[in-house]
Amino acid sequence: MKKALIVAAAVACAATTLAVAAKKKDVPQGKVLNIYCWNEEFQSRFNDFYAAKLPKDVKVNWIITPNQGNAYQNKLDETLLAQDKAKADDKIDLFLVEADYALKYVDTDFTLDVKKDIGLTDADLAQQYKYTKDVMTTTKGKKLKGVSWQACPAGFIYRRSFAKQVLGTDDPVQVQAQLNSWDKFDAVAAKMKAAGYFMLSGFDDDFRVFSDNISAPLVKGNKINIDPQIRRWVKQTKEYTDKGYNNKANLWSAESGQGAGKNGKVFGYFGPGWFIDFCLAGWAADDASQPYVTGNGSCGDWAFCEGPQGFAWGGTWICAAKGTDNAALIKDIMYTLTCDKATAKKIAEQTGDFTNNEAAMTEVANGSYKSTFLGGQNHLALLLQNAKKIDKSKVSAYDQGITEKLMAAMADYYNGKVTEDQAWNNFYTSVKELYPNLKK
After folding, report:
1. Alpha-carbon span 182 to 178, nearest angstrom
2. 112: which of 47, 82, 158, 257 lies 20 to 30 Å off by Cα?
């Protein structure tokens, strides 16, 4: 499998100049819209909030490849490298990227300039949170290469009934007062264990809290850089595992999700708005096809607070691929889902996702919105100020792969299969196998 997308020069050689279709009325639009992504989240947003506007003669083709093991990136890279030779109806039109590897595609010619090539204006983009634009801005020339419908300030989502039993209250303000530092969080974990509950579902639950507060990127130059915050996560997780404060589950495993069910014993999960809507609510519900209201599993028995340390997690950006014959349609999709205030409000109020429009989110935060899953709480109001503080300047193009390898290597340490030193050695070996250009 080629890794050419890491090197901008190689990418430039593989690409050819695209005429700006969005600006040429005589250029016919394609009849097939090919969208590459890794799960069904964007597909649901597209279907629920845009599909009604789609021209009837356009067919949408979803190419979904799971993220794990770099599978999605490998598939995307292979297809992009063949983009020039592909038939018009087979070319990638839109593809999605995450913050963990967005830089890999931003500084290449495979992504179109959202303003110059697609046609969005500074006025269109004015209400988007600055960090969401910074992540997708080229290091040279300051071109914007992608847009997102969401911002991802995050916090701690906890079971109300467990909080009432152990902490004496389920009120988010009062619970936050007992969880607003890691020392307090550890103390509550001990109380939860004594009461028969797990503070967290497993090893990786709070990794993003620590990794989002690192002082330098995971890769500097071509050297792997392990920040003290990452080592703090390893130390805490080993302690939580040994003391029975977690359920020894891996992130995204069935065991992790089961801890949120009606009979689950997990006190809380860390996550942003998308995690509540796209993951936790489905895990908690007895019937995920029904509304997430009290009586459906553990729905309604949850609340949200900021937790011991501010952080953000994730985010998905929409990129237009060079070679697309659907630039005008892409402009309308990008505008509707990421710039339009009314759509941003609908997404937030109907899904609980924190959307990428400050004016819309201010109205929702100060309005009558209530999450039935969270027992009637307006959690978006708590996130409003934090969204303005998000800083993604320390991400690298290698973050997804390094994170997966780190979690896998440390799981063996937490489970007592290897020593910590052996786990670190295995981590470095696996990262260098994935990214041969990196060194310890």
Report:
1. 10
2. 47
pLDDT in tens, the chain (440 residues): 333 444 333 333 333 333 334 344 445 689 999 999 999 999 999 999 999 999 999 999 999 999 988 899 999 999 999 999 999 999 999 999 999 999 999 999 999 999 999 999 999 999 999 999 999 999 888 999 999 999 999 999 999 999 999 999 999 999 999 999 999 999 999 999 999 999 999 999 999 999 999 999 999 999 999 999 999 999 999 999 999 999 999 999 999 999 999 999 999 999 999 999 999 999 999 999 999 999 999 999 999 999 999 999 999 999 999 999 999 999 999 999 999 999 999 999 999 999 999 999 999 999 999 999 999 999 999 999 899 999 999 999 999 999 999 999 999 999 999 999 999 999 999 999 999 999 99
Dihedral of alpha carbons 184, 370, 45, 115, sign = negative
Q: Which of 44, 40, 3 has its CA nearest to residue 347?
A: 44
Gap between the Cα atoms of 356 and 359, Å rounded: 9
Are 348 and 355 spatial neighbours (Cβ–Cβ below 8 Å)? Answer: yes
Strands (E), 65-164: 94-98, 153-159
Q: Quickly list H helices, 93-171.
A: 103-106, 122-125, 130-134, 160-167
Partners of 64 in the β-ladder? 37
Rounded Cα gap, residues 263 and 246, in angstroms: 16
94-98 vs 219-220, strand pairing mode: unpaired
What DSSP string runs through 243-260? HT-EEEEPTT-HHHHHTT
- Identity (one letter) of the amino acid at 64? I
Reported as type and span, the H/E element at residue 48 is: helix 41-49
Tell me how long the chain is.
440
- Count CA atoms within 13 Å of residue 373 on its CB side: 29
81 residue type, one letter: L
DSSP 116: I
| Tokens at 280, concatenated | 């936790």
β-partners of residue 144 are 137
DSSP states of 315-330: -EEEEEBTT-S-HHHH
Q: Which stretch of DSSP H or E encloses residue 184?
A: helix 182-194
> What is the pTM assigned to this prediction?
0.90
DSSP assignments along 70-94, one per residue: GHHHHHHHHHHHTGGGS-GGGS--E
- How far apart are alpha carbons 93 and 115 in whole angstroms? 16
Nearest to 268 by CA among 254, 282, 284, 253: 284
Amino acid at 262: K
